[in-house]
């Protein structure tokens, strides 16, 4: 009885604090993710006031949070849209992978962390934060801008790449070796292809089985289906997060629309729990030694992400101001970076212990500075600089390509 009472007190107090932090973040116009991470650091191992009774609750809640983040992301796209974006944005996705995964991989090797940690850190630096970027685009009124589809295409390619990357990393972190890791990747590829094919051909039947007219039944049905598929995917070493993402893709029409509305509050709750849990299991005393490396890595990879967006927008025929907006908008890292680092923390295979602290510091830096950088192209001095650049550029001959 005493333990359950302590659990209620700890969980209630921390959730109340998260609510206040979320309100504060929206007042000052920044993402709440860094504040949630800081709250976890303050109340975790080595923090100011460690919470012990509620750690298991937050561990389970964190896993549900990842699943809900991914199913909600999948609900934003239909299977046909996903396949179409994959075809049109494949070159931009390749540039994105080379420019942003390789710096993380090389950085880990330079630190002497080994190739498994290098593969993990490559994923941390590769993927932008869909949640933070979507919020920034909405806050800045850029949802209808010409460069926004380019940004979304890059994010979709990253999401698809994670469907293949996560099971491979999960296998590597389990220490199963290259052969079994290759088998896990093959199973993941086959699973993704099969689910996409089923979603394209029979997605309407899945949606028809879940009535959009009964909110309670829809909520229970979608949540139950998501957790079931996520659990089966985890059993197949495909990753629960990928299974949840594919469920979201399979749903369409009014069911997907209403499910998004019903699941949004749950997603916000458990996503906050997820970020807090990552902070809880990271010792703040481990962070000062990695702050300088994290800052260096953030500067390098925000530059490479800027180049990614700029080149992708240029390829799509977007004018120079839109290229800069696309590049700066892609710089924040968040959900997936923490998910990947979280896999390393929970792995049975021994991974570099400083990786979690480095990832936390890295995400904090990019998620705070990224939204600020996204505002630069709207500032008067930046617009004047672009006009001077345009005036100084020699005229393009008639008939020449951009």
UniProtKB/TrEMBL annotation:
Topology term for the membrane: Multi-pass membrane protein
Domain Cation/H+ exchanger transmembrane: 15-374
Signal peptide positions on this chain: none
Any Pfam family hit: Na_H_Exchanger
UniProt keywords, alphabetically: Membrane, Transmembrane, Transmembrane helix, Transport
Transmembrane segments: 6-24, 33-51, 57-77, 115-138, 150-176, 182-205, 217-234, 240-257, 269-285, 291-313, 334-351, 357-374
Cross-referenced InterPro entries: Cation/H_exchanger_TM, Na+/solute_symporter_sf
PANTHER family assigned to the protein according to its UniProt record, in alphabetical order: CONSERVED INTEGRAL MEMBRANE TRANSPORT PROTEIN-RELATED, SODIUM/HYDROGEN EXCHANGER FAMILY/TRKA DOMAIN PROTEIN
Similarity comment text for this entry: Belongs to the monovalent cation:proton antiporter 2 (CPA2) transporter (TC 2.A.37) family.
Full protein name: Cation:proton antiporter
Biological classification of the source: Bacteria, Bacillati, Actinomycetota, Actinomycetes, Micromonosporales
């Amino acid at each position: 009885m005493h333990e359950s009472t302590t659990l209620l007190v700890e969980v209630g107090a921390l959730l109340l604090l998260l609510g206040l932090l979320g309100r504060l973040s929206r007042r000052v116009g920044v993402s709440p993710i860094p504040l949630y991470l800081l709250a976890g650091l303050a109340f975790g191992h080595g923090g100011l006031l460690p919470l012990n009774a509620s750690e298991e609750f937050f561990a389970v809640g964190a896993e549900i949070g990842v699943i809900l983040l991914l199913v909600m992301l999948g609900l934003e796209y239909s299977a046909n849209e996903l396949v179409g974006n994959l075809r049109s944005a494949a070159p931009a996705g390749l540039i994105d992978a080379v420019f942003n995964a390789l710096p993380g991989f090389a950085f880990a090797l330079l630190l002497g962390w080994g190739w498994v940690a290098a593969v993990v850190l490559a994923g941390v630096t590769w993927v932008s934060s869909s949640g933070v970027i979507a919020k920034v685009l909405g806050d800045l009124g850029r949802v209808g801008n010409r460069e926004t589809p380019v940004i979304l295409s890059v994010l979709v390619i990253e999401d698809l790449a994670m469907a293949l990357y996560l099971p491979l990393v999960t296998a590597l972190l389990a220490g199963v070796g290259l052969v079994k890791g290759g088998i896990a990747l093959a199973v993941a590829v086959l699973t993704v292809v099969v689910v996409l094919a089923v979603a394209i051909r029979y997605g309407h039947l899945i949606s028809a089985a879940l009535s959009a007219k009964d909110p309670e039944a829809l909520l229970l049905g979608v949540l139950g289906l998501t957790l079931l598929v996520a659990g089966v995917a985890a059993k197949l070493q495909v990753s629960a997060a990928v299974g949840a993402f594919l469920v979201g893709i399979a749903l369409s029409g009014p069911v997907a629309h209403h499910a998004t509305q019903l699941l949004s509050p749950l997603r916000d709750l458990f996503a906050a729990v997820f970020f807090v849990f990552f902070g809880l299991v990271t010792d703040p005393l481990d962070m000062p030694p990695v702050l300088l490396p994290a800052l260096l890595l953030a500067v390098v990879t925000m530059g490479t992400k800027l180049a990614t967006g700029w080149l992708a927008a240029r390829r799509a025929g977007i004018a120079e101001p839109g290229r800069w907006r696309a590049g700066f908008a892609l710089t924040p890292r968040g959900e997936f970076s923490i998910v990947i680092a979280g896999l390393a923390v929970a792995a049975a295979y021994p991974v570099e212990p400083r990786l979690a602290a480095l990832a936390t510091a890295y995400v904090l830096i990019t998620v705070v500075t990224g939204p600020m950088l996204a505002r630069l192209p709207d500032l008067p001095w930046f617009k004047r600089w672009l006009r001077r650049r345009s005036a100084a550029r020699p005229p393009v001959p008639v008939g020449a390509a951009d």
